[in-house]
């Protein structure tokens, strides 16, 4: 069992990453993969974030609960996370399964944990950390564990301060002065309700928040339960932690808030995914993958260094194994094994790359069949676009959301939140205008 040392003493902790959601708001990136398996920052997957936070916090016994489109996620986990057999560490997958007592899919986060409770309880843990598989943040979980133990809490909910404009999108807590949660409201949208949940001036000052505005504590979807408390709170048919379990627990258990002040982003929509990735190309990104004290781990692919043949590149991330000819790339993120021919112009765009290199035989077959090779053909302009893996973009194409609706479906492309998405394995013929 993962035994971590905190300022409050030693603790045996088990971690569970929720990876079973359908991820409909990230469609079409989730058309062929689960949400935690969506590529991130050129070479990572979303699920690498919570797992890396666990490993950097010395929590090395981790379960991943999966359900929808889980094949690529399973493959990534299997190829990536291998611990020394003497360490006792693991990242194990618990997929939705039929049992003598249940033949249904996971119906929510709490239901997913409940249906795997027998597997989880086989481990000798004192505390269990429940994490989301689709958030971008960097936390030392030992800080949460220490506060939880010091307060003698039965459940601790990680929270982050948000303004009034964002509060209706989150579960909002109201704490007493000792940090104990007295109220929890899921997505409050009435003005009088929001007024009753905002932090007092003294609470805002304690958190060093700007004076003059309304501040709220939003749930981050990170929960730390005592073993006994988890069993008690799941002894019912409630399906979701945020909507059901947490509000009920406030009435029956000692529930406290841990306030986090760093960067945190819920990658739940195409717009959030797009902006979070492009922010990584800025001079001072909000999430820094170059912080080596707490690295983000992912699959080692053993790819060659990228080759740049005279391209002009401004504020961009170029991943491993790419070949980029004489083109212009700005404020863009280029994923692994990307090929960009000469004369292209990419601005505010994300290429997720390719899963493998084309062989000479497959290139000849593509040329014979009159379809573009994998990558971006010459003299193509791409703006405000996400191009999924293994897409074939022809020569002399223009792809931009300008003049188009915010939401649109076509055979070869989609528009979500004003961003064009070219789906995985799509073929965009030469000369196409989108």
Summarize this structure as a short list of keywords or feature phrases.
434 residues, alpha/beta, Spore Coat Polysaccharide Biosynthesis Protein SpsA, Chain A, 2 domains, 8-stranded mixed sheet, 30% strand
Which SSEs are present, and which pair or pack?
Blueprint: E1 2-6, E2 9-19, E3 39-40, E4 44-45, H1 48-56, E5 61-66, H2 71-80, E6 90-95, H3 109-115, H4 117-120, E7 127-132, E8 135-137, H5 141-150, E9 155-163, E10 171-175, E11 181-186, H6 191-197, H7 201-206, E12 215-226, H8 227-233, H9 241-252, E13 255-259, E14 264-266, H10 270-279, E15 307-308, E16 312-318, E17 323-324, E18 328-334, E19 339-340, E20 345-351, H11 360-369, E21 375-376, E22 381-387, E23 392-393, E24 398-399, E25 408-409, E26 414-416, E27 419-422, E28 427-428
Explained architecture:
The protein is α/β, with parallel strands linked by helices. It folds into two domains: 2-279, Spore Coat Polysaccharide Biosynthesis Protein SpsA, Chain A, CATH 3.90.550; 307-428, 3 Solenoid (UDP N-Acetylglucosamine Acyltransferase, domain 1), CATH 2.160.10. 21% of the residues lie in helices and 30% in strands. It has eleven helices and 28 strands. Strands 1, 2, 5, 6, 7, 9, 10, 11, 12 and 13 form a ten-stranded mixed β-sheet that branches. Strands 16, 18, 20, 22, 24, 25, 26 and 27 form an eight-stranded mixed β-sheet that branches. A hairpin with a 5-residue loop joins strand 10 and strand 11 (181-186). It is globular, with a radius of gyration of 23 Å. The model has no long low-confidence stretch (mean pLDDT 92).
